[in-house]
Amino acid sequence: MRRLLCLLAALLLPITGLSEEGGSVLSLRITRQGETHEYHIPREVIPQQTPTPEEIAHTPDYAAAPAAERYRCDTDFAPHETLSFKTHEVSRFSRYDGDTPLWTAEIRDYQVQGWQETTPGVLLWGHTDVSLRSYGYPITAWMTLLSHDGEVIWSQALSPMLDWEQPACVIENGNGIYVAFSTYYNGGQEGLCVRQICADGQMLSATQTSASALGLSEGYPRFTLRSALALEDGFLLHLTSGTRDLLAQLSPSGKLQQVIVPDCADGLLTLTDMQYHSGSLWLSGYLTPGQPDEDHFQSSRSEVTDVISAAYRRMEGWGRIDIDWLDLHLVLGSKPVTSEYLVPRIRERYTAVLLRIDPANVLPLAAYTVDGCLGGALTAGDSLTWDVESLTACRYSPFTSSYTLFGTAKVFRYSFSGDGTLEGGGETDETAEYWR
User: Fold this and answer.
1) What is the pTM of this model?
2) 68 CB contacts (<8 Å, ≥6 apart)?
3) pLDDT, tens digit, for every residue of 31-44?
4) Distance (Å, rounded) from C-alpha 407 to C-alpha 387?
5) 122: closest CA among 150, 85, 91, 156?
6) 216: which strand partners?
7) Positive or negative, the Cα torsion across 363, 368, 371, 375?
8) DSSP E strands, 289-342
9) Contacts of 80 (CB under 8 A, 6+ apart)
10) pLDDT of residue 327
11) Residue 77 and residue 91 in contact, taking contact as beta carbons nearer than 8 Å
C-alpha cells in the first residue's frame, strides 16, 4: 500500500516551469511581419533565496487595508430619469496626503476609469455608462485635465466619436501634446485608436487601426491595451488577447508600422512590463508550463489549473489517475489545503524572465531568469531596475468569487547597466499580492 501511495503522489505532481533541457539557454521565438524567427539566447540565472518555513506557514490576510494612495476615485449611482435602474451620477476624484483628503473634483459627464499625473496637473479619462448602450445611448469617451489643486482646466468628449471607446493610457510629449491610446468597438468592428491632443484639450488627429491589422481576430476574447511606451521615433504598445501578448510599433503619428509577437519554446511567456533604456527594449514577464491555445480561452488562472484541481481533490479527499485506458478514482481522505501545501507547487510553475532586445532589428540580446518567481515592474533611471516577485505564502478558497488563490510575495529588486550587466540587487521591504 505504501508503494502504491508513493506512485500516486508521483503521478499527481505538477510539472515545472522550465524543462531541464533548457539549461542555460532560452529558446525565444519572435514573429515579425508574419515571419517567425527562433533564437537561442544564453540566459543568466540569478540565484535567489527561497522562502523560509516560517514565511510559508503564514496565512496571508486578504482583508488587510489597502496601502495609502495618492489619488482615489469613488463613483455614485442614481436612478435614471427614464429607465428603471441606476446609472452613473458622479465620479468623485480626490487627492490624499496619507489618509487626509486635500481636494475633491466631481466629474458628472462620464465615469472616470483612469488617470495619470502630468506636468500641469492630473489627466483623467473614462466613458459614459456602458449599461445605457442597450437602450440606444452611445458610449462616449471623455478626457479631463485637472490642475494640481483640483480645478478643471478643460474637459472634452473625444471626437470623432467611436462607440464604446475605452482610453487606456496617455503619454505626455515634451512639446505639450498628449498622445492618448484607446480601444474601441464600433459597429461590430474593434480596433485601436491613437489621438493627438493639444495642451488646451483640442483634438489634433485621430488614427485608427483595426484588430485584423494587428493580427487579432474580431470578437471574443477582445484584446486589451496594457501599456504604451515612447521610443526614439514613435511608440510601442503592449496588447493582450487571452494569454497572447503582442507588441505594436507605431509611427509618431500613430500609424501601425509592425506587430511583434514574442514567444518561447520553453513555456508560455506572459509579459508584465516594458521599458526603453540606453537604446535597448527591456521586457519583463514570466514563464509557465504549456503553450498558447488559440482554440480555448486561457487566463492567468490557467497557469495554476493543475494546482487548483489538486487542491480541490485534497480538500474533498479523492484522487484520480487517467492514463490512456486507465481511469481510477480513489478515496484518500480529506486533508487541509495549507500554505505549506500550496506555495511549493505554485512556485515550481513560475520562472521570472527579463529580456533585452535591440528595437531596431528586433534582435534578442540577453535573457535573465529567476526560478520560482514572477517578473514584475521595470523602472528606467541611471540604471534599469527589475522587480521580481517571490511568492512566500498563499491561501485557498474555492467558494469565494473574488479569488481562488490569494498570496503575498516578497519583492526583490535588481539593477542593470545599459549594456546589460547585472550591477546588483536583492530583497526589499516591499510586498506584492498574488491573485488567481
Assistant:
1) 0.83
2) 96, 98, 99
3) 887 788 889 988 89
4) 17
5) 150
6) none
7) negative
8) 318-323, 326-331
9) 86, 87, 132
10) 63
11) no
Could you tell me the three cell numbers for 210? 483595426
Quick check: bond before 221 cis, omega within 30?
Answer: yes
Which residue has 445605457 as its cell numbers? 132
CA distances from 409 to 59, 98, 393, 406, 425 (A): 12, 24, 7, 10, 17
Nine-digit cell at 298? 486561457
Alpha-carbon torsion, ordered 62, 63, 65, 66, to 10 deg = 40
DSSP 64: P
- Which helix (DSSP H) or strand (DSSP E) does residue 258 occupy? strand 256-264
The cell for 217 is: 481576430
**pLDDT greater than 60 at residue 8:** no
Residues ≥6 apart with Cβ < 8 Å to 89 = 76, 77, 78, 108
Give 102-151 pLDDT, tens digit per residue.
999 999 999 999 999 999 999 999 999 988 878 888 888 999 999 999 99
- Specify the 3-state DSSP secondary structure of 66: coil
Q: List the strands of the sheet with 25-32, edge to edge.
A: 224-231, 234-241, 244-250, 256-264, 25-32, 35-45, 363-371, 351-358, 280-288, 268-277
CA distance 127 to 110: 5
